[in-house]
Amino acid sequence: MGMPESRTKYIHRIGRTGRAGKGGDSVLVLAPFEKNFLKQLHDIPIKDHQLPPSEIEMGPTEMRAYRRALATPPLGMQEETVMSAAGYCTSL
Predict the structure, then answer these.
(1) What is the CA radius of gyration of the chain?
(2) Within a 10 A sphere around the Cβ of 22, how many other Cβ atoms?
(3) Would residue 80 count as lying in a domain?
(4) Contact assessment for residue 34 and residue 2, using Cβ atoms and an 8 Å cutoff
(5) What is the pTM of this model?
(6) Alpha carbon distances (Å) from 62 to 21, 31, 57, 58
(7) How many CB atoms lie within 10 A of CB 71?
(8) What is the CB-side half-sphere exposure of residue 48 using CA atoms within 13 A?
């Protein structure tokens, strides 16, 4: 879900869909503004399934919710970060 940081990270993600010689399928969901990322994947067989415009339009209300979601850390992330930092500091 969403554009990975790089081609390498995308390949790493989809590599988890099939293990030990078995195949797997991957679905990449991109927002319209992320579509340029597909240029980095030009040699990977990706089928394009466009959503109808009514499914991807974002008005002011949706855009505010989207921006708020981007700015809000996931539940528990702050606690996990503190615990991780504490664990690192005690291991020194």
Answers:
(1) 18
(2) 7
(3) no
(4) yes
(5) 0.45
(6) 42, 13, 9, 5
(7) 7
(8) 11
The first and second tokens of residue 77, run together, are 């992330």
- Domain membership flag for residue 85: no
| 56 touches 32 (CB < 8 A) | yes
Question: Is residue 29 one of the residues assigned to a domain?
Answer: yes
Domain boundaries, position 61 = 7-73
Cα dihedral 3, 26, 69, 64 sign = positive
Residue that has been written with the tokens 């579509």 in this structure = 35
Q: In 3D, which of 9, 8, 26 has the Cα closest to residue 17?
A: 26
The tens digit of pLDDT for each residue in 45-77 reads 888 777 666 666 777 877 787 788 777 777 777
Contact (Cβ atoms closer than 8 angstroms) between residue 44 and residue 15? no
- List, in order, residues 6 or more apart from 32 with CB less than 8 Å away: 56
78 lies in some domain: no
Total domains in the fold of the chain: 1
